[in-house]
Amino acid sequence: MIKMNKIGKRKICEEIISKIKRENKLGGIYKTIEEIFDYKGFKCMIIFNELIVSNPKIENMKWRCGYVGIQKGHPFYKKHYDKIEEKGGTSVHGGLTFSQIGDDEFYPKDYWWIGFDCNHYKDDLRNWTFKRVKKEVKELAEQLTIKNLILSGLGK
């Protein structure tokens, strides 16, 4: 077994992080699509994220995010998540934190994706299991149905 000093370990970690950044173009964050599913006429998705930290004394960060894909014609299509929240059309864990057109790398094209993350203070994977995040995604999709937007006065 080869023993390494702290500088050697840090150099190897930095090389690994550099390789991850080059290969995945996500700044050291590995993203894994856990599930894509249809619900209430929406394309929905759950992504598992892991931030690789270069300091071996610090644990890598892991969290899930939930997304709903909105199609052209929906009142919130191409609206920034702040604007959606201003209108009071949604209520999800931690509020909406994402909006972007599909890029076909992680987010399928032809959709405007809005989502939330489970990486807030005191969030962890024990509390935000796959099952719980999926339930929250479904609740977001339900809130975005045209029927519910009209009932709330936002879909006019």
Describe this structure in words.
The chain has 156 residues and is α+β, with helices and mostly antiparallel strands. The chain has one domain (30-152). The chain has four helices and five strands. It has helices at 6-24, 81-86, 130-144, 146-152, and strands spanning 29-39, 42-51, 61-70, 98-101, 112-117. The chain has a five-stranded antiparallel sheet with strand order 1-2-3-5-4. The longest helix has 19 residues, at 6-24.
* Mean of pLDDT: 79
Number of domains: 1
Q: Would you report the number of β strands?
A: 5
Note the overall shape.
Answer: globular
Name the helix and strand elements from N-terminus to C-terminus, one letter apiece.
Answer: HEEEHEEHH
- Given helix and strand content, the structural type is alpha+beta
Give the strand order of the largest sheet, numbering strands 1, 2, ... along the chain. 1-2-3-5-4
Distance between the termini: 68 Å
List the uncertain runs: 1-9, 20-27
Please count the helical segments.
Answer: 4
Percent strand equals 25-35%
Roughly how much helix do the residues carry, as a percent range?
25-40%
Rg, Å, rounded: 19 Å
Q: In this structure, how is the largest beta sheet organized?
A: 5 strands, antiparallel
